[in-house]
Amino acid sequence: MKRLIPLFVFAIILAACGGGEEATASEAPGTTPAVAEAKDIDAKKIWKIRCIACHGLYGDMGTNGAANLQEATSSLDYRINIITNGSENGVMTAFGEILDADEIEAMAKYTMSFNENLK
């Protein structure tokens, strides 16, 4: 039984970072980053479903080694690549087979809204 506990914990972490149900989190009015503009794609909803478990509501949680997006200064192309293919160190899940190209671009733009210095 004790051998199953680490496996269970690992499965929960893996499921949380790879997607699943929409996370519930309270939002303070006026503090949510602007939603990316791309063909009526609700980047905020995708963020809550796919990304919030590791990056947090405002991109600064850093669970499981996730990047702090409030401090990140990477380009839009770099972010599109990371979202599509995952990170080189394997921490970031690849979403290229889960999200379409427009959704990935919307998400990359949405992540840039967390860093006020990039606006």
UniProtKB/TrEMBL annotation:
Signal peptide: 1-18
Ligase is among the record's keywords: no
Record bears the keyword Cytoplasm: no
Keyword annotations: Heme, Iron, Metal-binding, Signal
Cytochrome c domain boundaries: 38-115
Domain of life where this protein originates: Bacteria
InterPro entries in UniProt: Cyt_c-like_dom, Cyt_c-like_dom_sf
Protein name: Cytochrome c domain-containing protein
Species assigned in the record: Neolewinella maritima
